[in-house]
Fold this sequence. Notes:
The chain is α/β, with parallel strands linked by helices. It has a single domain (42-290), classed as Vaccinia Virus protein VP39 (Rossmann fold). The protein is 34% helix and 19% strand. The chain has helices at residues 49-56, 61-77, 93-101, 114-123, 158-168, 189-193, 202-211, 227-236, 255-273, and strands spanning 2-3, 10-11, 26-28, 31-33, 83-87, 106-111, 128-131, 145-149, 175-181, 214-222, 283-290. The strands form two sheets. Strands 3-4-7-6-5-8-9-11-10 form a nine-stranded mixed beta sheet, with helices on both faces. A two-stranded antiparallel sheet has the order 1-2. Helix 2 crosses helix 3 (93-101) and helix 2 (61-77) packs parallel to helix 9. It starts with a strand and ends with a strand.
Amino acid sequence: MKVCLSCGQSFQQISWLCPRCGQHPARIGTYLSFSPELSEANEGFPADAHERLFQLEAEHFWFRARNRIISWALAKYFPSAKSFFEIGCGNGFVLSGIRSEHAHMELCGSEIYGQALTFAAKRVPDAVLYQIDATRIPFRDHFDVIGAFDVLEHVPNDVLVLKEMHKVVRKDGGGIILTVPQHTFLWSVVDEFSCHFRRYSAKELRTKVEQARFRVLTMTSFTSLLLPLMLAVRWRNRKQSLKNFDPESEFRLPTVINKALEAILNVERATIARGVRWPAGGSLLVVARPE
Length: 291
């Protein structure tokens, strides 16, 4: 079901032309744009970061490990899912990982920055992509699974995004998968540069997910085995300011170290797949169903 963001009319036709008010979403390049005024500048993320990330994330241990735990959660908790919608898909790295594991799934992605969609289309040419503000999503009861991966921390009103997800996900067996950064004691210049509004505690995230009328199926920390290393790095850089911060410093790892860290996180994921739920870690994973 589609929704006109101008008048609120719901409709099921193929066209996005609203049958009530005649409004049609704008276009940014080849992509439908539902919030064009936010496409180039907003408070959620550095506008020029997508091109740099496109070059760096494919080989970085953390992005690769996160893709694997997302694919595991999707297969375990939603094995019959036929459609997946990612909010804040960025350069499409998560969508490309899902495509490699779920060849026949219908994939859609949204991103507030129109520029990022160009990179996402290169990675996942068959995904349907939209420029959308996550607090105003033009679908209702539409997708089997919705994902938001390190997105909620960029939004001032994260509960509003969760409530939008509740409206958009199918209620007959659908659900959501979330990842967020965890622990306020890990707050650093990295969070400031990334335009984070918060790092979460497990209690805070569970409360907000339930406030949006979801029932949590599972919650676990991840990047847990690397938490001591993360603490050491954050402590070392505790006096660093945005003025002298190099955003690519954490990506420039020797190949041997990068592979070793990825191997450690692969071991951690295997323990999660066997039922271990880690109480602490750099990130949180939540899987939930709508009530």
